[in-house]
Amino acid sequence: MVSLSSSGYYLLFCLLGLLLTHLPFHSADPDPLQDFCVANLNATFSINGYPCKSVSETTSEDFFFSGLSKEGDTNSNPFGFIVTAGNVKTFPGLNTLGLSMNRVDYAPGGLNPPHSHPRATETGVVIKGKLLVGFITTDNVFYSKVLTVGEMFVIPRGLVHFQRNVGEGKAMSITAFNSQLPGAVVIPTNLFATTPPIPNQVLTKAFQVGDDVVNSIKSKFGG
Question: What distance in Å separates the CA atoms of residue 71 and residue 206, rounded to the nearest whole number?
């Protein structure tokens, strides 16, 4: 049996450290194992993602999506914004490719309320108008900037962020994600419009307010 000196153990530890730091780590969706895998949204079984549509049933239309060309209805919610999603659920050709895009339209004064994307980093560009974009780190540090047409932003994965239209007219941005389905945890609705509802005792304690305040907020979201 070969024994190692203290210096030998130290060298082995260093080599293992170098090896581990060069291992590939994936920050979003796994790499595809074929050219494409158009999602079969009607599959009767569930996997982590979507199963592939048969290649024989795949057409050119599966790889093109026109949804982001149309302005959304910003009157459909109390925040004055609307997301048109170009993810795997609306664009099945994205399945297994690890990316997606959204169009976000804002009425004057519209707000994309504080939210996070648990499965993706977000980057975006302002196409129309002027937006205040901000995010909060896990150390409760707030970063923000007002952006105009052509300027970009990036939101690290999982961090709470928002966009608000601070211009005089409508605004619009295009955002991209390194996930086919980034998910969205929208803080106001996640806290005050869940099914079943979060107990008032939790919310009153968390926000240091009374039942009347919590019930008033819940009522605005149909709770």
Answer: 38
